[in-house]
Write a structure and sequence with these properties.
alpha+beta, Jelly Rolls, five-stranded antiparallel beta sheet, 2 helices, 10 strands, globular
Length: 178
């Protein structure tokens, strides 16, 4: 009896020999946020120090939105939260040794069925940064959602960090202020 891996290989060889290509591999899924398997204490301390230095006292962490996970190269970590157009925001992405570079992006998370003017910016990158650590919205009161002029309703957003090089613990922490 053939083992499961052997069956898959035989199936793929059959497809190739028949002139068919196997289906493309699935894109790398984002890693679920979880404190398990992450150097949470070290990252929490590092994030608090960065927030103190980069954000000052004006911005506070958004409760329940900080996420942490060990990631490999190409893997992503996401956090979802809501921004108010009249408030300032910052997102800190932080790593520990092992991760050499990350990309940080923020985009509007507009449901497909939404028919408002906000749909115009759905899945559009609103802000980004990269490097060993990355920051969106530090200084001058933080990032402000002003993409749709005159918009006054809360906007659901996604902040995502992707490991470009290396592997190890990554944390995302969104902050909100006046």
């Amino acid at each position: 009896m053939a083992m499961p891996g052997t069956r898959r290989l035989l199936f793929l060889l059959t497809l190739v020999s028949a002139g068919c290509r196997p289906p493309p591999s699935a894109p790398t899924p984002h890693a679920p946020a979880s404190p398990a398997g992450c150097a949470r204490d070290a990252l929490t301390t590092a994030l608090a120090e960065r927030a103190r230095l980069q954000l000052g006292d004006d911005l506070a962490p958004i409760v329940g939105a900080t996420v942490c996970r060990d990631l490999g190269e190409g893997e992503r970590l996401r956090t979802h939260f809501t921004v108010q157009p009249d408030r300032g925001y910052a997102i800190l992405a932080h790593t520990l040794p092992g991760v050499d570079a990350i990309d940080l992006v923020l985009w509007a998370d507009v449901p497909v069925g939404n028919r408002s003017r906000l749909r115009l910016v759905a899945d559009t990158v609103l802000a980004q940064d990269d490097g060993l650590v990355a920051t969106i919205g530090a200084g001058d009161g933080g990032y402000r959602f002003d993409v749709v002029p005159g918009w006054t309703e809360p906007v659901p957003v996604v902040a995502e960090a992707k490991v470009v090089a290396g592997e190890g613990p990554v944390a995302l922490a969104p902050y909100e202020g006046p």
